[in-house]
Amino acid sequence: MRTIVSRLIRFKSSNARSRGGRYLSTDSNKIDEPFNVEEAETVHVPPPPTEKLLVLGGNGFVGSHVCKEALDRGLSVSSLSRSGKSSLQEPWATRVTWHQGNLLSSDLLKDALDGVTSVISCVGGFGSNSYMYKINGTANINAIRAASEKGVKRFVYISAADFGLANYLLSGYYEGKRAAETELLTRFTYGGIILRPGFIYGTRNVGNMKIPLGVFGSPMEMVLQQAKPLNQLPLVGPLFTPPVNVESVAKVSVRAATDPVFPPGIVDVHGIQRYSQQKSR
Predict the structure, then answer these.
(1) Phi, psi angle pair for 278, to nearest 5°
(2) Of the candidates 248, 247, 255, the residue with the CA atom closest to the CA atom of residue 118
(3) Residues near 4 by Cβ (< 8 Å), separated by ≥ 6?
(4) Which has more confidence, 190 or 168?
(5) Is 151 left (phi over 0), alpha (psi -120 to 50) or beta?
(6) How many CA atoms within 13 Å lie on the side-chain side of 235?
(7) pLDDT in tens, 114-165
């Protein structure tokens, strides 16, 4: 239990304070009176409830790192994905509540949202343009709407940076992403955060193999961080977007989902790098 000592200020006149420091009254016959401050009794209030985070796509490459980061921060974590429980044989995975379901089915999604205070969506995929729009756009839009109706406070969507010409080659992918972003900023005006990383590197688990993408991802990040002006070049500029570590994405997404003063809106790759270097609150 936390103890909060509050002070109640009672005004013994209906006077309002002017800029000059005097108390003015609408009754010209009254003399300015000071106000008295009285000590209030100590009250006891229960601690705030544990924050419950739902990670959409929590058993994927990015989602698994988000789950682990959230657990390390002391949050209660659940995940909803098509395959359900993660195949990772790691201690943290046993502390996640795993739900199996499809974001295109609203009933399963609403059940998973019970008691949830914040959501992080890592859902996305590639394929035909129609499939990419459905998985990157429609599925996330369904999740955003369901979360809004359930009264979820904050929603973080891990989207993708623009890559110039690649946007046209993968039109379904980017059109879906941007449609989901628009829905999020509409439904969660003050609690919607969009992360736009470029290439995300880290150790990927493919079956029993671990692929260390950081071997070339980390050097590229250091080099391209210094080449930020090149991002402004017409057509090819977005190709110089630096990659970002998956742990940085996870750290910033969890902070954005739980920190009430984290500003809503879009965070580009440079913002992700900057926030990841700050100490967590």
Answers:
(1) -85, 155
(2) 255
(3) 43, 45
(4) 190
(5) left
(6) 0
(7) 999 999 999 999 999 999 999 999 999 999 999 999 999 999 999 999 877 7
How far, in whole angstroms, is CA 218 from its chain's centroid?
24
Least confident range of 37-51, 106-120, 142-156, 231-245: 37-51
pLDDT band at 76 (very low <50, low <70, confident <90, very high): very high
Provide the angle, in degrees to the nearest 10, between the axes of the packed helices 171-187 and 139-149: 10
Question: What tens digit of pLDDT does each residue of 182-238 get?
Answer: 999 999 999 999 999 988 987 666 555 555 554 444 445 454 455 555 455 444 445
| Closest-CA residue to 195 (of 260, 245, 131) | 245
Work out the angle at residue 110's Cα, subtended by the Cα atoms of residues 149 and 61, and round it to the nearest 5 degrees. 110
Record the pTM.
0.74
**Residue-wise over 44-54: b if at least 16 C-beta within 10 A, else e?**
eeeeeeebbbb
